[in-house]
Amino acid sequence: MNYMQLLDEIRINVSKNMVGKQKEINLILIAMICGGHVLVEDVPGLGKTTMVASLAQSLGCTFRRIQFTPDVLPSDITGFTMYNMKSGEQEVHTGSIMSQIVLADEINRTSPKTQSALLEAMQEGQISIDGKTYELPRPFMVLATQNPVELVGTYPLPEAQMDRFLLCIHMGYPDEAEEVEILTRHQNSAVQPALKPVATAQQVLLLQEAVDHVHCSDAIKQYIVRLAEATRQHPDVHLGVSPRGSIALMRASMARAMIEGRGYVIPDDVQALAEPVLSHRLVMTAQAMLEKTGPLDILKKVLATVPVPRVSS
Predict the structure, then answer these.
(1) pLDDT tens for residues 195-218?
(2) Structural domains in the chain plus CATH codes
(3) CA 234 to chain centre
């Protein structure tokens, strides 16, 4: 299978419903290749749902959207059992999580108990209903959104759950030309047609297997560890990058190398992904927050100070 051609076809297909956002599309493809999950932090109306739905349609995968509100229960996510009076048996009704691609919209608007219902699914690829374990379909990917501006009536995600997301991305506003193109596409009231799949779920699984063969040298691994160690020792950081974060950065760098058509990782891959992979894993000190020093400021300093290794193919 020609992986580069397949990835290009997916990217082009998603772009039919998206204007611009090539960087964000590539990041989601990286997460897909790694079998990871994505947290999208941005204000409403920037195309988060459109991009996720377009990806699901392009892959021919099952897709469910969960609109999180304070009254959503854990059983709404995972499922429940119900007694069937006709058959006299307990029937299992699986929840919305039983899909290959799941959009968890405004995840910070639901209770911590419901948020935690996603943890087992995101980490283990399975759910538990009344003591019985059920495997989730593969591939499985959660794309969650939250509004970082409006905090009233929200429940901030705990560090343990933030760490489950491979990437945290920001859509950002379109530039003038892109927004004009968006208006042109929506000039009439016709609904955008559904995209035709250009890849199968089985091909996605093959992509996830192929990334294991991308070479990551010891020098690159040491570079990643030194970046993580620098965040742990920084005086403005209360909690630095964990080993899970180091693994995530390595795996994401391998996926980026694959997208770029290389069979090996270079420092550019690590540097390009340091922000989306590591920023949401840093917990700042109270003093740093008062001084409005954020994770991105720390990562820029760390990337500028940690020596970059010389790596050959």
Answers:
(1) 889 998 899 999 999 999 999 999
(2) 3-176+198-204 (3.40.50.300), 214-305 (1.10.8.80)
(3) 26
